[in-house]
Design goal:
serine/threonine-protein kinase, 4-stranded mixed β-sheet, transferase, 5 helices, alpha+beta, ATP binding, Kinase-like_dom_sf, 6-stranded antiparallel β-sheet, globular, a-kinase_dom, Protein kinase-like fold
Amino acid sequence: MARNSVIAGRDISEAALIGYGGFKTAQLAQLTLSPLRPNGIGSEPCQDIIVKRFYIPSKKADQLPAVNDPKDDPKRSLAKRFPRLSVPDELEKLYREANILYWAKSLLQLTYDFIDRAISKAATLPPFDIPRLCFIDAGLLLAVKPNENNAKSSGTANVQTPYLAEELIPNSKSFMKYVHNSEPYPLPEPDEPGYDLAQFLCFTQHIQYVKTGGLAYITDYQGSGALLTDPQILTHPSVNAGKDLFGEGNLVIGVKLFAREHICNAFCRWPGFKLDPPASVDIDF
């Protein structure tokens, strides 16, 4: 069913900019869908969300003029710091981001299905707890210009601004990256917060790699509490006949080196999971 939506504060000012990376900005907004969804993002009116957009990286954003002149137009000033792509180009990139989240959720569900089946069949319970994590709820939102001629149009002709709307992570201060997208081992050191969770996430990579026959696994794990966001999926070049299904972070070298660089931990070695060490897959560059 099609839904109408309202994003409060769409010409988002500097005050609503909560962060930016090398390619994307993240801004605080409010969403109201009509009708409301039964659960997840858009299930309540005036719901706090995060909207993300791509920008064209040139200089470092913190070296560009800040939005601090009350006489200046906040939307225009923000655009100076973060010049946007064309609508078709940005929409394609945001679609890829949403697609990554969609498939990351599926791969993580496959992982937990494997874990739960193994534990249910094991003679004894594992000597550790299984963290229960999930990826944030998200979806594409399009600000569409009304067609004055009341004629049907196709493509992105009437789209003014695309957004990736994401569930707000409440404990943003504890946000951290657990596993980098090019290295299948924990980023935190053993004596640092988040190390045990990073170990578990590396174990999930082992499961995904083995269960897909070395074709795909989630990486770039990051988030706060039980919520994860902004993943990457690394795939073997044979997936989709070599045409990249995911984002620019899909590094073939990661798949090639996974079996060599992955270090099995206590999760991997528990006999109840019956996990063999990951075997190398052939990749020609």
